Amino acid sequence: MPRRPPIASRPAGAVATGEPAGARLSAPLAARVLALACITAACAHRPRGAEPPRAWSYTVEDHGERWDVELCFADARPPALVAATAAAEVLIDPRDATTGAALDLTDGDAPRIDLAPMRGPCLTYGVDLTSAADGWPRRLPQLGDDRLVANELWLWHPPRIAEDAAITAEFRAREGERVSTPWTPLGDGRYALPEAAVRWGSYTAVGDLELHALEVAGGALEVVVLDGPRRLTSAGLRRWLEAAGEAAASLYGAFPRPHLQLLVVPVDGGDEPVIFGAVERGGASIFLLINGGAADDEFIGEWVAIHEILHTGMPFVARGDAWLAEGFVTYYTEVVRARTGLKTEEQAWQALFAGFRRGIHDVRGDATLSDASQAMGRLHAYSWVYWGGAAIALLSDVAIREASAGARSLDDGLRHLSRCCAQSSRRWTADEILAEIDAWRGDAGIAPLCREVLATSGFDELPALYRKLGVSVVDENLGVDDTAPLATLRRAIFAKVD
Ligand SMILES: [Zn+2]
How crowded is residue 1: how many other Cβ atoms within 10 Å of its Cβ? Predict the structure, then answer.
């Protein structure tokens, strides 16, 4: 029998990119699922100094409770290695591979391995995955016979990293075990790590893994289903994630990443088929916590997987600007489901109305949407920020369509953003993203409109917009007026795509 992960026994850990799922869950369940949130502490340190090394490789040997790592530099060797604090707690015996000399670990502001005594290009060190288990669930969830290892535990790296550094990793799994990483396979057993791998969190999964390879709209999806109770069949899993991928790709014109790892963790309970989702930015990875009791049909067209895949088409957005990342994605989660036939246009409008209503109920006093976005985590103002941002997306989409007589839409701006900037290894502010979209469009742009709405609660302009579009909801029933000034534009937003 697979063991159930002891979610309830641990307090909430780090908070992930944030999800409206949290806003829709009961507080205890939200705390439980947030305990599985996986964005780990940043671990890059950038003191000034000599030129950073341009190429190095990790070879990881899995011995179950312990990993042995060999790290080799192809050119310059840095003076030291740094890592997340958690990595120092599980580090075993770092040595120069050439001389066998022990290397010192120092703990100042951040842990460092001093490489000055090294003579050769390689060092070796062990990683104690037994003691890392103390940090459960954030760093080392054990799910039945499968294990997720937070990559921050073993990714010791130079203090400075060139953006085009060639970093590779190779894994030697135990007999009968398989490995899944969030990085692009090079085809020879190695993976190419982006600079973001040492900056942001991600997981490597090891064990007798259930792996599914899906091809969706030009993207390769590696789905890992970890041990846990589940009714969802393999065929149902594929149908669910293929439909979600196609829906998200309908916005961007193609699947937003060439390679994406999807970690699916089944657990007992939950009111919805997917309980929680998060994007891991230390590679290309999505984490989905699913309700083990939900059947195949409940997953088709559910919103969390689509929402998270849509996030991977945008760059990592600054925490205080959640209104843009979450708002735009929340709007398009409803729009693309209608466009790809997973919902009707009527259901999409009802979802938007219901969401805006939840957002309006979440507004606090005279605060603005901008204030709420800056303090979203502290205020737990998730419904306000997500749906206030979604209102901005709807207003912007309508404004662009109106100004271009239907020739352009917000879709075009997000497609451009996906192509130019989604894989950027830094955080972007909302101002930078709006500037990128507006410069590309070359007109007055949407930034002034966004700023205007951000200075209010975020919902003041909706009643007038509803009248222009010709939509209303009375007692949960959608009313549509096809003589409204922008009725044609309204229909175009949800027009089906092939
Ligand atoms: Zn989100």
Answer: 6
The rounded Å distance from CA 127 to ligand 1 centre is 33
Q: What is the pLDDT of residue 134?
A: 57
> Cα separations (Å) of 104 from 107, 153, 198?
10, 18, 21
C-alpha of residue 306 to centroid of ligand 1, in Å: 10
Q: Are 281 and 319 in contact (CB under 8 A)?
A: no
Structural contact between residues 469 and 486, judged by C-beta atoms closer than 8 angstroms: yes
Domains in the chain and their CATH numbers? 7-37+209-311 (no CATH), 55-201 (2.60.40.3650), 319-493 (no CATH)
Centre of ligand 1 from the C-alpha of residue 303, in Å: 11
Whether the full predicted model's pTM is greater than 0.70, yes or no, is: yes
CB distance 34 to 10 below 8 Å: no
Q: How many CA atoms lie within 13 A of 487 on its CB side?
A: 9
The DSSP element (H or E) to which 224 belongs, if any, is strand 219-225
For 134-171, write each residue's pLDDT tens digit: 555 556 677 778 889 999 999 999 998 887 899 999 99
Collapsing DSSP states into helix, strand and coil, what is residue 317? strand
Ligand 1: centre distance to CA 99 (Å): 49
> What is the Å distance from ligand 1's center to 382 Cα?
10
Task: Kindly give the distance from the C-alpha atom of residue 18 to the centroid of ligand 1, in angstroms, as a whole number.
Answer: 6
Distance in Å, CA 405 to ligand 1 centroid? 31
How many whole angstroms from 452 Cα to the centroid of ligand 1? 23
Cα–Cα distance measured from residue 308 to residue 305, given in angstroms and rounded to the nearest whole number: 5
Distance 125 CA to ligand 1 centre (A): 37
Residues 6+ apart with CB under 8 A from 241: 214, 216, 221, 223, 262, 305
Point out which residues pair with 111 in neighbouring strands.
107
Report CA(386)–ligand 1 centroid distance (Å): 8
